[in-house]
Amino acid sequence: MDTLNLLMDGFASALTPINLLFAFAGVVLGTAVGVLPGIGPAMAVALLLPVTFGMETSSALIMFAGIYYGGMYGGSTTSILLNTPGESATVITAIEGHKMAKAGRASQALATAAIGSFVAGTIGTALLVTVTPIVVKFAVSLGAPSYFAIMVLSLVTVTAVLGSSKIRGFASLGLGLAIGLIGMDPVSGQKRLTFGFAPLVDGIDIVVVAVAVFAIGEALWIAAHLRLTPTRTIPVGTPWMGKEDWKRSWKPWLRGTAFGFPFGALPAGGAEVPTFLSYVTEKKLSKHPEEFGHGAIEGVAGPEAANNASAAGTLTPMLALGLPTNATAAVMLAFLTMKGIQPGPFLFENEPDLVWALIASLFIGNTLLLLINLPLAPLWARLLKIPRPYLYAGILFFATLGAFSVNMQVADLWILLLIGLLGFALRRFGLPVLPLILGVIIGPMAEEQLRKTFQLSAGSVSGIWSEPLAVGIYILIAILLILPMLISFIRRSRGIQSDLVETVLGEEHEPAKHKAELAGEKEQRVGKDES
């Protein structure tokens, strides 16, 4: 009952004219950046961080949440009309959605994606309301050793799962942790990694890092692969669904939601795994399996629902534990830190009005997105015709302006350029970006918990595993790191054994084969003599 009352108070705050205006601006902007390939919600939020300095914290967070949800919506438009996923989470949507569009059913594909996103987002937000307070009660009881172990788990899982190589993932994480260490030691006051450069004494502002990695790095990477010709899109009318489309879509929407929310709430769960699982499940359960690969509507409905439900799940660890599980949540968490708000389990206790206004705005933003996306799908398709040089030149301009406005220091522009080049290098050599951002944000928080742990244990290393939960988490981390290597080793050893067996058997059968050939030749000669 208390939760319901708090949610009603949140609606009272979110429904004020100014917050409604920011929610509307957020969902429109989020849909736009989701539609445009290469521009995701993380980049949009990072670019807007400097603009939100003078705004009310609740209004800015509501706008960021609208951008986040809108980006999930908009990514399906690009996937369906262009076969170009804006994010990895919409890759599965492109498989069936683009085939439907080429078959003249683009409007039905866009409609089932939009309505499925609304259904999944609404159910996911309701689950967020239910689950998050429970997680908060559990998190408040945790000590510093357990909290440090949870942070290590989130860093390790994100680093080990993302990217094509664990080594590259940990290299990216190491860079992020190193950037997070720059500045003055909070306990001893010693300068760390400043190299005698005075502006680094206070550390590198997370806004500069986020803008550099997402905006500068991404813009340079896209420019390196720039196509000057405008993109050709499939024409589309107003999205609509027939009776048969509704009948084939509503169950995949619900199943996709069931897949998406739990994975979104897990560290490194993301939206890629649940969208894939949803697609495979719908293919097995469908009464029309022959249509998969040729434009099955279930292959759009289920994965899109899973994608948007995972977005709501992502906010659970961010609000309850102060741990982001994707890039957009990481930038939103950086905004809270920048505003002097301590993220974590005490956020609900210290800032209840802020948190519940944000959660209530998710219901409002979800409804606005449905009302906006259905009639305006043709307009979003026209955005794809903007020449890329104009688009990314504007991004670079606003990124530079935003980074300079943080501290009004020219040094920040040099730092922006250097970290932007680092972001470009990460993409060039296949290193994931998210571990770097999480290292910058979570690294100092983990250091604080580690120092508290040593203080409690009088400097003894055993204090790190002094709580049962911490021990369990470290065992889980060991399993996550060792199990894939063990499986790979077993597969390789089996492959070597099978090759050896084939070689031995081949050598053993070679004489027999030779004898059989001689016998066959002898029979042929006898037959010729008799004839």
From TrEMBL:
Transmembrane segments: 20-49, 109-136, 142-162, 167-184, 204-224, 354-377, 389-406, 413-442, 469-490
Keyword set includes Transmembrane helix: yes
Keywords assigned by UniProt, alphabetized: Membrane, Transmembrane, Transmembrane helix
InterPro entries noted in UniProt: DUF112_TM
Pfam families for this protein: TctA
Residues covered by region (Disordered): 508-531
Domain of life: Bacteria
Every DUF112 domain range: 20-438
Protein's name in the database: Tripartite tricarboxylate transporter permease
